[in-house]
Amino acid sequence: MTDARHPLTWWIWSITLAIGIARGNNPLLAIAVVGCAYLVVRKFRTDAPWSRSFESGLKLGLWILIIRTTFGVLIGTPIPGTTLFRLPILPVPEWMAGIRIGGAVTQERLFSTAREGVILAAIIICFAAASSLTSPHRLLRVLPFSIYQFGLALVIATSLVPQFVTSISRIRDAQYLRGQKLSFKKILIPLLEESLVRSLDLAAAMDSRGYGFTRVRSRYRAISWNPGDTIICLISAFSLLSPTLILISVATPFILIKRRVVVPAS
Amino acid sequence: MITFAAVSLIYPNSTKTVLENLSLTIAEGEFVLVIGPTGSGKSSLLRLINGLVPHHTGGILAGDISVDGISTQSVKPGGLAHLIGIVGQNPINGFVTDTVEEELAFGMESLNVSPDVMRKRVEEILDLLSLAPLRNRSLATLSGGEQQRVAIGSALVMHPKVLVLDEPTSALDPIAAEEVLSILHRLVHDLGLTVVVAEHKLERVIQFADRIVHIDGLGNTRVGTPAQIMSDSDIAPPIVHLARALGLEDVGLTVRDMRRMSEKIREGKYDKKEVPSIASGDLVIDINGVSLSFDNTSVLQNINIKIWAGEVVALMGRNGAGKSSLLKTIVGLHKCSTGSVELLGDNPLTISGKQRRETIGFIPQEPSDLLYGQGVLMECNQADEDNEIDNGETFELLNELVPGISPHTHPRDLSEGQRLALALSVVLSAKPKILILDEPTRGLDYQAKNQLISTLLRYARVLGRTVILATHDVELVAELATRVIFLADGDCVADGKTLDVLLSSPAFAPQVAKVMSPQPWLTVKDVINALEVTR
User: Fold this and answer.
1) Which of A92, B185, B445, B534 is in the most buried spot, having the most CB atoms within 10 Å?
2) ipTM
3) Where in the sequence is the domain holding B18, given as residue range(s)?
């Protein structure tokens, strides 16, 4: 793990990608960046629980795209142009004047909402890529003390997510074996109880291990900042000049980073 | 080292006093064992030592507790971190970092210990607890015993004077438990560490204890040497019950003492009692050449087992030997890579709903996974409705198992034993032909365990149903099972009558068998029966 990138590097890298996508406002560019980011994630992620966040981000992004496009087409003011098909217009009360539900769906309208959806989804996927590549705990250790408390709360929340997933599948299995039809409630209640117990345990453990007792924390193994980190960050910063440059910045990790040392999990 | 001065504790919104006027002084280098029924306040007593109670949980505390001269009232738990190491019931819930090494360092980082001191201490602990090969491993991939060792290590690395452990062996197989306890024993003797342990499985830990604190759940406590407490305690390991049953003057606390005292009985000649083979009923489960693998790692290899009606089968083996995987394959959660499983001729993967409930009942490791009702009665009524039986039948069943549960209690507020009983009655209300339990005795006290044993025996013997349980609890197996299947690395290495399998392996032999070897007796009842028949 020693030649892994500094966690901040990955976050700077992904944030500049997100900025580039937003500024470029070009769905093709966004898709290209996401594709390239996927290759980077596939090559550099470990087999840790959070390394799957990229897939979750991808799913979330797709959902956002679908929902946004549907709503964008259904609701809102029409953009004139080629009409693709017509939906029945839903009558709305008078006070909602100015909003139309249904009606003609034009090619222009569809394209513009889909394009906004793609860009939004791509930005989310960029953040998912960073969280796939960095351990939340490692990130926490490089944060300054002033935001440490805040960061810690976030890390605990995020590290609970993979545990949530295991708990959900365990509870779902148990309910299935009870011969029950699955419902949200039947899974949610045991899950919430378990998470509550778990968080209390964690808080008690941290408290009794002296967490937060001194303002200054020492570092067992300092996370070093290497020249490679500087280069990635510089290229990322440079790419802010023009959106198309992010295509270079997204690929820099490939040029620079040696293959990660795999820790045997025997 | 630790002084309790007239300590009383009560939680808000509760009428029950947890502790009443407890005065106790624990000297440096003492190994103190805390015993009591579940929910009696053992964990509260342990958490009082570093001030987690009441600083973290609330509660009204009278009297004073001081550790090494520092009163817990004046300092928060963090202020005692250098003095007291505390290991909770589920170590994995308390892990803050990703890898073993980082976890060991976490506490020292919080206390701002300089990096070179940290490096040295981490190495020390890695050696002391034989954790060196695991140093870069992710915590989530460790086995139960390894997790427990890491938790102990991360407490010890702070060089505490007191180590407090809450049920350190409840999730461990007998060998891993022995390992953890002998480490504690060594620390007490080599470093003069003061250790306070709460544990239900007395047979594992009593031989190490210098003193015992017995809490009865009504606020009363008794403190004394193991011999004093064991002379009349209702909570006692099988070995003490044996001494009482044989009418010995002293209670022996170790197998060695008891062997010395029972020499005469052992040397007698006894009629050999034939254990009737139960494998005469119908074929219920047919496991035929089952192999299972995840991500190219083989978990089960070519398992062939036939289980008949009326059998009580115990699945044993190390943590990670494939017990749970086999159970999950039987109930139809895993699809086997090769081979087949048949439950009464049906494929477990295809049955669902009512047919599933009537064929096979499953109690998972966490019985609360099954429960989602807001009250005991609601839960029971749901089961009545599902199984189309008379209203109130499930609750009646629960009342038979554990009398006196208020119907309006929330399942979360039940004790471990009561919660298991609730899950059990919900599952049994469908009258399944097969009942499967995964680690049922985790966290159960002796009383709850005996209740479980008698319920399951009645279910198997009277109704002729089949019970399969995966467990580490040798004493439970000795009392309950008719057949033991031993798994190692996904292979079935032994399959036979309980008596034969348990006696053939010293590590997995119950206490009574160790004392009475070479006589083939597993439980106190076996001994008494044999003596009576011969007399």
Assistant:
1) B445
2) 0.83
3) 2-249
| Residue A60 within any structural domain of the chain | yes
- The answer to whether residue A30 is domain-embedded is yes
pLDDT in tens, A134-154: 877 777 777 776 776 777 777
Q: Are residues B243 and B290 in the same domain?
A: no
- pLDDT: is B250 or B469 the higher one? B469
B-interface mutation test, from A158, A199, A220, A261, most B Cβ less than 10 A away: A220
Helices (H), B157-209: 174-191, 202-205
- Average pLDDT over chain B, rounded to whole? 88
Q: How many domains does chain A have?
A: 1
Do B240 and B326 lie in one domain? The reply is: no
Cβ of B115 and A180 within 8 Å?
A: no
Domain presence at residue B517: no
Burial of B201 (0-12, 13-18, 19+ CB in 10 A): buried
User: Which residues are CB-contacts of A150 (< 8 A; sequence separation ≥ 6)?
Assistant: none
B129 touches B152 (CB < 8 A): yes
Asked whether residue B161 falls in the same domain as residue B288, the answer is no
pLDDT tens for each residue of B334-390: 888 888 999 988 888 888 888 888 899 999 888 888 888 888 998 898 888 888 888
Mutation choice for A interface testing from B136, B356, B372, B422 by most A CBs within 10 A: B372
Residue A147: how many other CB atoms lie within 10 Å: 11
Below-70 pLDDT ranges, chain A: 1-3, 49, 76-78, 98, 145, 148, 155-162, 256-266
Residues of B in contact with A202 (CB under 8 A): 93-94, 96
Domain that holds residue A15: 7-146+225-256
